[in-house]
Write a structure and sequence with these properties.
It comes from Sphingomonas lycopersici. Belongs to the universal ribosomal protein uL30 family. By secondary structure, this protein is an alpha+beta fold. The chain has one domain: Ribosomal Protein L30, Chain: A. 31% of the residues lie in helices and 24% in strands. It contains 2 helices and 3 strands; from the N terminus they run E-H-E-H-E. A 3-stranded antiparallel beta sheet has the order 2-1-3, with no helix packed on it.
Length: 58
């Protein structure tokens, strides 16, 4: 299965609880942290939910 790297670029301060939980589910909870994940529809949906706070690196 293909892998994608996701980097957190936005702060979870003043965000909703579900967006914070989504970042934690992606393995991100601090600025500029990078997480390598399987490229699945579930992960893509989580990325889409917090797309304003993350950057996909490939």
């Amino acid at each position: 299965m293909a892998k994608i790297k996701v980097k957190q670029t936005g702060s979870p301060i003043r965000r909703t609880k579900d967006q914070r939980a989504t970042l934690i589910g992606l393995g991100l909870n601090k600025m500029h942290r990078v997480s390598e994940l399987e490229d699945t529809p579930e992960v893509r949906g989580m990325i889409r939910k917090v797309q304003h706070m993350v950057e996909v690196q490939g």
